[in-house]
């Protein structure tokens, strides 16, 4: 399963904190929609919701950063990038390895 292309609908059954956790686990770029209307596209590499002011840390698309953005400044997160690890599970790796050993494509 991948979150590629997902635009979460926050509400009773899905919180911003949950979406941020999914974005942190996502192995691709996301677009952070800020409450001031600006957007930052990039890669979330850290988050902490267990502090007085929860935050994320990310690098933007050109690789600048890290930037720290408090949860209070985030309206939503869109999963706009390609999931770089989709289909690259341990099981898929093992299957490819076995095929290589047997000399089959």
Shape: elongated
Runs in which pLDDT lies below 50 for 5 or more consecutive residues are none
- Ends distance: 25 Å
Overall pLDDT: 87
* Count of domains: 1
Order of helices and strands: HEEEEEH
Describe the main β-sheet briefly: 5 strands, antiparallel
Radius of gyration: 17 Å
Kindly describe this structure.
With 105 residues, the chain is α+β, with helices and mostly antiparallel strands. The protein has a single domain (16-102), classed as SH3 type barrels, CATH 2.30.30. It has helices at 16-25, 90-102, and strands at 30-34, 39-48, 55-60, 67-70, 74-78. Strand 1 (30-34) and strand 2 form a beta hairpin. The model has no long low-confidence stretch (mean pLDDT 87). The protein has a 5-stranded antiparallel sheet with strand order 4-3-2-1-5, covered by helices on one side. The two termini are 25 Å apart.
């Amino acid at each position: 399963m991948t979150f590629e292309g997902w635009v979460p609908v926050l509400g009773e059954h899905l919180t911003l904190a949950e979406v941020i956790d999914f974005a942190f686990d996502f192995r691709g770029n996301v677009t952070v929609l800020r409450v001031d209307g600006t957007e930052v596209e990039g890669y979330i590499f850290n988050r902490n919701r267990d502090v007085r002011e929860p935050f994320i840390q990310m690098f933007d698309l050109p690789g600048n950063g890290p930037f720290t953005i408090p949860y209070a400044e985030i309206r939503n997160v869109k999963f706009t990038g390609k999931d770089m690890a989709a289909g690259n599970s341990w099981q898929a790796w093992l299957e490819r390895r076995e095929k290589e050993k047997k000399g089959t494509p």
